[in-house]
Structure formats: C-alpha cells, structure tokens
Write a structure and sequence with these properties.
Elements lengths: L7 E4 L5 H12 L3 E5 L4 H15 L3 E4 L6 H15 L4 E4 L14 H29 L2 E6 L12 H20 L5 E8 L5 H14 L3 H9 L11 H12 L10 E4 L7
Parallel strand pairs: 1-2, 1-4, 2-3, 4-5, 5-6, 6-7
Helix pairs in contact: 1-8, 3-4, 4-5, 6-7
Amino acid sequence: MHNLKGKSAVITGSTSGIGLAYAQHLAQNGVNLMLNGFGSLEEIEKNRKSLADQYGITCLYSPADMTKPNEISKMMAQAIDEFGAIDILINNAGIQHVEAIENFPVEKWDSIIAINLSSSFHTIRHAVPSMKEQGWGRIINTASAHALVASPFKSAYVAAKHGIAGLTKTVALELAQDNITVNAICPGYVWTPLVEKQIPDTMKARGLTEEQVKKDVLLAAQPTKEFVTVDQVAQLAMFLCSDAAASITGSVMPMDGGWTAQ
C-alpha cells in the first residue's frame, strides 16, 4: 500500500487498543517496530512475537515508563541503536482521570500531564536528529477530540491534549523544510478495551442498559452515534506516512463522527 518497507517506528502505548492497531498496520507494510506500554508481559510477548513472525519484521518491546524522561531516552536510544534510525514516531500513550477540579488529585494531574503531554516532547526531541539525518520522517501524535473541545471533569486530560495540538503545530513549523511532517489525529470515542470496560460500571451507576450507555452516555457527543474503530485511526496514520500526505503537516485532524463540528 505504502512503500515503507524496511523503515522503523517507535509507538508509545502500543500494547492494546489504538496503539496496537498502529503496530499491526505498520507491520503489514514491512516496518520494524519498537512497542511500548503496560499490560501482562505474557500477552505483550505474544503480540510482539506474532507481529515479528507474521510479517517478517524486527519487533522489539520496551517497558519504558512514560513518566520517566530517562527511561524514554533509553528506549529511543535502543531503537536508534537497533534500527539505525527512527523513521516514524507515533505518540499514543495516554491515561485518563475524571474528577471535579477542586477534588482532582494532584498526583493524577502530574501523571496525566507527564504521560499524555511531556512524554511526546521527550520522544520527539530524541527522534528528530535521526530523522533529519535520514532526510525523512513522520511524527504522529494521537490527540483526541479533547484537543479541540472540552468536557467537564477532565481538566488534566483536556489540558494535555490541547497541549499536544500546540506541540504538533510548533514542531511542524520547525521541521517544515526537513521533509518531516508532524500531525495530530483527534479521535472521538473509539471502541477499545478501555472503553468497553467502563460500560458495566456505568450501567450499574446509572441504571441503564448496555445499548443506552453506548448511545446516551458514550456517544451523546458523537452525531454519527457510531464508535470510531481502531482500524480507521490506524488507516489515517498510514495515509499520513505516505508520500501522498507529504504536504499535510501541522494539522490537528478530527476523526470524531462530527463531534467537534457542533
């Protein structure tokens, strides 16, 4: 589909959900991978091995903690060491906490800003010299509809995602003449294990059926009343990696069933 064979990618938060979908689509196109994220080591190893075996690529895993700049540095150095360069960087690691501002735990604020925003600064600053040397690069930040609009009780998450939009635009301008594009994808509600797990609790808390939770709670803001799929997000990332997207940089692209058009 895209001539990416032999290129290398680092994807943070790629052990499940959107991140794993990015990994699968890149692997299908012959891209070597550095996976990263939390989860059961057994499950992670299974995914790592199956991507490597199925697509004949090198697939590594780093348990680097995205709140720790020195661990991020080590992961990036390991990828450059192993692959010779980082051609594609996808920042996808993210966590969420929902709470009124006056009760918002300070340590939750700190870790959301660290993982959802600062980690992207750290991965980007390490990847750029290697991309400049190659004369080619693609940086894709998974933002959120919350990079463009807000919802109550998500102060840290919304602040971090708005920050990602600003970081994306700034770095895009700096690298505009280096054949390196920098873009943010802003999904609305995506059907992931993370979202799926919230449904039973919400059914109980609000006395609703599963169908009602999906339509009236989760998809209330999404005019299509459909979840975005992880494959749709990954396909957009693949397009952004292609030559056809060479002029798309500094964009903050909604993929949200019309949410931010309202």
